[in-house]
Design brief:
Layout (H helix, E strand, L loop, with lengths): L4 E8 L2 E14 L2 E11 L5 E8 L6 E6 L17 H5 L11 E10 L10 E4 L1 H10 L10 E10 L3 E2 L2 E4 L4 E4 L9 E4 L20 E5 L17 E11 H7 L2 H8 L6 H12 L19
């Protein structure tokens, strides 16, 4: 509210309130976006409505919250105490498995970005397609690239961490094991298993993974101990525009929207990265001008 300016009046639940607006421009979950926040405030300071709008980009959309039965007063110290989940179970303990698994994963990235997985989020076929088909229009991906990777990981998965560009570098958000173990969740956190699918195979909806830089083992080594992943190998890189437009992934995404897990879209995505053979739905390899950091 300190940055907001009054822009008008409104009536909510038969109560007049003053609308205040604040705008922020900068990196949001990896993109340079604009966020517009509005709040409708009654003369006594009570907030009846809060809205957040991202006009364009991968995370475009509006979220609006309205509040009813508001009680003004001191809620007491217990209102600000951490919940049991946050105080005792964050981050969640590692999965009990102690094996090593080779993952086939995919990552969409922009021009000039290093070809690496450190401090980045990825997904298997269904996991990555769920991002494309649900985050905005998908058109923001058209100028980017997609790489198919193989990587060896410890199956003692941690809680998934959000890893994004903060304007200067990629960083993973989290605590404890989230910052040195490969994290896993079901696509968009939708899993029949507990803990967002952290210790579940999620073959029906797909997986998304986080790769903290601190967990990368030296070249040629096998994951173990505090090092949880090793030997990342980029297999093929293609232009995202080939997949999105020429292979019509965005069109099929629209048809499947609301009907996850996007099986037809996933087939297009997988075929496009499997080979350069156009007759099999493949996309040609591209040569990258990679920025070294």
């Amino acid at each position: 509210m300190a940055l907001a300016k009054p822009i008008g009046e409104k009536v909510i639940h038969d109560t007049p309130c003053s609308v205040h607006r604040a705008e922020y421009a900068g990196p949001v979950l990896g993109d340079n976006d604009t966020i517009i926040m509005t709040a409708c405030v009654v003369s006594n300071g009570t907030v009846l409505e809060v809205s957040q709008r991202i006009p364009a980009g991968k995370f475009s959309g509006t979220q609006t919250y309205r509040f009813l039965n508001i009680s003004v007063g001191d809620p007491g110290e217990t209102a600000f105490q951490s919940s049991y989940a946050c105080a005792k179970q964050y981050p969640h303990s590692l999965c009990p498995s102690q094996g090593v698994q080779t993952l086939d994963i995919y990552r969409i990235f922009g021009k000039g970005e290093p070809l690496e997985l450190q401090n980045r989020d990825t997904g298997d076929v269904l996991g990555d397609v769920s991002f494309v088909c649900t985050q905005g229009s998908g058109a923001s991906y058209e100028s980017k690239f997609i790489t198919h990777w193989q990587v060896d990981v410890s199956t003692a998965f941690a809680q998934y961490a959000l890893c994004n560009y903060n304007g200067t570098s990629n960083n993973c958000m989290g605590a404890g094991s989230m910052l040195h173990q490969v994290g896993r969740r079901a696509s968009q956190a939708q899993s029949p298993g507990p803990w967002n699918g952290q210790c579940y195979d999620n073959v029906d909806v797909g997986n998304q993974y986080s790769f903290p830089a601190a967990g990368l083992y030296p070249p040629g080594e096998t994951p173990g101990g505090r090092c949880s992943w090793a030997n990342p190998r980029p297999l093929r890189t293609v232009s995202a525009s080939c997949v999105m437009t020429q292979r019509k992934l965005l069109e099929v995404c629209k048809m499947e929207f609301g009907h996850a897990p996007f099986l037809r879209s996933a087939k297009i995505f997988e075929d496009a990265l499997a080979s350069a053979d156009e007759s099999k739905g493949g996309c040609p390899d591209v040569t990258l001008e990679v920025q070294l950091v």
